């Protein structure tokens, strides 16, 4: 009898071992399927329109110059026409140009032009790939955050059909690159949190003061997050608030983890054991990554202000001249970015961004009857509108309120993490009420909105142990919201892809006058 019991136990163990890899594959197949769907949407007809879309008039040419000279150069006024012409002419030059953003995002955009040439597909492909990978990351982050593959896949699906993220994944602008890096850092910190909690649980099992004294050693995922956030700063300085907020967030996680593991003095232990390692692996690693992004400018002689400090004396003359020149260059970039108040047709106030009050028209062409397949008597329109899928963004407003409730009243750390990310990428813009700003900057916010909506939908499904009736009604409500988001995206799809549509159809999609 004992032998039979032992054999049955061993059989169950073998079945468990075989089932574990299958379960792991399931955790990947769902997110991968969502990512493939997102990738098909983003890569389909990526080279259309054959034009410079909005600020593509700057970044692809800067990217081309970086890959060929190491620094951004000036271009003639008719450069766009020459580049898009047939035969193509690329009027390269050596004269340096002042630029308003660090170079890393343009290096990444230039990777596509290096392989596919200075054409619309070439300067959009790198951003499209990162936008697709961002959908995969959201699905995986959602699975880790909520311990549910279903909720993670829902979050990824929501981002796959968000109009703003879709548009910003199909244009050669910097914001999609920045969004990828910030999201990657957030995901890396979640992995680090899980791993350190495992160590703390082991310490708690030892008893005594182990949770106070335990040292985590090298934390590669947190170091990776620091590098990614430094890279985000090297794309746009908007990554700096995320670096600061995420550094504070991980320290709070360390303190809470030590307290949960039975530490007698969790705050003291965190300050003694975790503060300096966090400073090294986050801000310091970020700073080093940022400086390295300027290697092209430092290694060449022709960049803007490259020799500003040569022959200048002063209190900091002991600092190498190239670094002093770089510091001066940064002071000019800071002045430009903080004092830009030139009026623009599509500028908007941050207060309106969550409700998509003023989306940005990135491309517009009025097509006459008989041209480009237009058969409407009143003519047609072809537009790229950087509009977040309205149903999704409006649902996200309720989801953020729910996350605030969960964090404040239930002390839900997951809601707190999402709110911290939202605060890092959204709230700093309220400081610049008079600056010329645009709603498409919030593409960095989209992943966290989708995660918040997925959390709310998961709550609608009900907790484990709910009655079947409760589950059915919750699933019906959550499914209705997801279907509404997908339908809304499909309805606005022509405005995301510059499809030629009759003017009457275009007017039907202008729900508010502020969208025109």
Automatic annotation (TrEMBL):
<keyword id="KW-0812">Transmembrane</keyword>
<feature type="domain" description="Protein O-mannosyl-transferase C-terminal four TM">
    <location>
        <begin position="323"/>
        <end position="515"/>
    </location>
</feature>
<protein>
    <recommendedName>
        <fullName>Polyprenol-phosphate-mannose--protein mannosyltransferase</fullName>
        <ecNumber>2.4.1.-</ecNumber>
    </recommendedName>
</protein>
<dbReference type="InterPro" id="IPR032421">
    <property type="entry name" value="PMT_4TMC"/>
</dbReference>
<feature type="transmembrane region" description="Helical">
    <location>
        <begin position="173"/>
        <end position="191"/>
    </location>
</feature>
<feature type="transmembrane region" description="Helical">
    <location>
        <begin position="438"/>
        <end position="461"/>
    </location>
</feature>
<feature type="transmembrane region" description="Helical">
    <location>
        <begin position="149"/>
        <end position="167"/>
    </location>
</feature>
<feature type="domain" description="ArnT-like N-terminal">
    <location>
        <begin position="34"/>
        <end position="258"/>
    </location>
</feature>
<feature type="transmembrane region" description="Helical">
    <location>
        <begin position="391"/>
        <end position="409"/>
    </location>
</feature>
<dbReference type="Pfam" id="PF02366">
    <property type="entry name" value="PMT"/>
</dbReference>
<keyword id="KW-0472">Membrane</keyword>
<keyword id="KW-0328">Glycosyltransferase</keyword>
<feature type="transmembrane region" description="Helical">
    <location>
        <begin position="275"/>
        <end position="297"/>
    </location>
</feature>
<feature type="transmembrane region" description="Helical">
    <location>
        <begin position="121"/>
        <end position="142"/>
    </location>
</feature>
<keyword id="KW-1133">Transmembrane helix</keyword>
<keyword id="KW-1003">Cell membrane</keyword>
<comment type="function">
    <text>Protein O-mannosyltransferase that catalyzes the transfer of a single mannose residue from a polyprenol phospho-mannosyl lipidic donor to the hydroxyl group of selected serine and threonine residues in acceptor proteins.</text>
</comment>
<feature type="transmembrane region" description="Helical">
    <location>
        <begin position="416"/>
        <end position="432"/>
    </location>
</feature>
<dbReference type="InterPro" id="IPR003342">
    <property type="entry name" value="ArnT-like_N"/>
</dbReference>
<dbReference type="Pfam" id="PF16192">
    <property type="entry name" value="PMT_4TMC"/>
</dbReference>
<dbReference type="InterPro" id="IPR027005">
    <property type="entry name" value="PMT-like"/>
</dbReference>
<keyword id="KW-0808">Transferase</keyword>
<comment type="similarity">
    <text>Belongs to the glycosyltransferase 39 family.</text>
</comment>
<feature type="transmembrane region" description="Helical">
    <location>
        <begin position="26"/>
        <end position="44"/>
    </location>
</feature>
<comment type="pathway">
    <text>Protein modification; protein glycosylation.</text>
</comment>
<feature type="transmembrane region" description="Helical">
    <location>
        <begin position="473"/>
        <end position="496"/>
    </location>
</feature>
């Amino acid at each position: 009898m004992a032998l039979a019991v032992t054999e049955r136990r061993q059989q169950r163990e073998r079945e468990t071992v075989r089932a574990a890899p299958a379960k792991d594959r399931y955790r990947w197949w769902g997110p991968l399927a969502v990512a493939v769907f997102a990738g098909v949407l983003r890569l389909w007809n990526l080279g259309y329109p054959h034009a410079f879309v909005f600020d593509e008039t700057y970044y692809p040419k800067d990217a081309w110059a970086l890959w060929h000279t190491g620094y951004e150069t000036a271009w003639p006024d008719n450069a766009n026409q020459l580049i898009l012409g047939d035969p193509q002419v690329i009027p390269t030059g050596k004269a340096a140009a002042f630029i308003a953003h660090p170079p890393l995002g343009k290096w990444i955009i230039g990777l596509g032009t290096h392989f596919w040439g200075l054409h619309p597909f070439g300067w959009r492909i790198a951003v499209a790939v990162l936008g697709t990978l961002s959908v995969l990351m959201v699905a995986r982050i959602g699975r880790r955050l909520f311990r549910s593959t279903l909720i993670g896949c829902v979050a990824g699906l929501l981002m796959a059909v968000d109009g703003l993220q879709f548009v910003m994944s199909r244009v050669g602008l910097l914001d999609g690159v920045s969004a990828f890096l910030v999201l990657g850092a957030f995901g890396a910190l979640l992995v680090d949190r899980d791993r350190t909690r495992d160590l703390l649980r082991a310490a708690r099992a030892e008893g005594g003061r182990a949770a106070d004294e335990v040292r985590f050693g090298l934390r590669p995922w947190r170091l990776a997050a620091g590098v990614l956030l430094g890279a985000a700063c090297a794309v746009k300085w908007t990554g700096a608030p995320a670096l600061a907020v995420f550094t504070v967030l991980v320290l709070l996680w360390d303190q809470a983890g030590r307290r949960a593991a039975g530490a007698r003095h969790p705050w003291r232990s965190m300050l003694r054991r975790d503060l300096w390692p966090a400073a090294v692996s986050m801000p310091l690693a970020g700073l080093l990554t940022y400086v390295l992004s300027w290697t092209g400018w430092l290694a060449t002689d022709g960049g803007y202000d490259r020799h500003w400090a040569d022959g200048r004396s002063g209190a900091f003359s002991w600092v190498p001249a190239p670094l002093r020149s770089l510091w001066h260059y940064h002071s000019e970039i800071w002045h430009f970015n903080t004092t830009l108040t030139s009026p623009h047709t599509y500028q908007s106030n941050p207060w309106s961004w969550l409700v998509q009050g003023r989306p940005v028209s990135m491309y517009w062409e009025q097509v006459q009857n008989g041209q480009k397949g237009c058969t409407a008597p009143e003519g047609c329109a072809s537009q790229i509108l950087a509009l977040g899928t309205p149903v999704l963004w409006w649902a996200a407003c309720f989801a953020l309120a729910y996350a605030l409730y969960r964090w404040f009243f239930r002390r839900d750390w997951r809601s707190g993490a999402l709110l911290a990310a939202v605060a890092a990428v959204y709230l700093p813009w309220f400081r610049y009420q008079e600056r010329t700003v645009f709603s498409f900057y919030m593409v960095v916010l989209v992943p966290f909105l989708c995660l918040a909506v997925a959390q709310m939908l998961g709550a609608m499904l009900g907790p484990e142990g709910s009655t079947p009736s409760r589950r059915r009604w919750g699933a019906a409500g959550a499914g209705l919201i997801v279907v509404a988001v997908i339908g809304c995206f499909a309805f606005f799809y022509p405005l995301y892809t510059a499809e030629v549509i009759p003017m009457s159809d275009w007017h039907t999609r202008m729900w508010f006058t502020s969208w025109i």
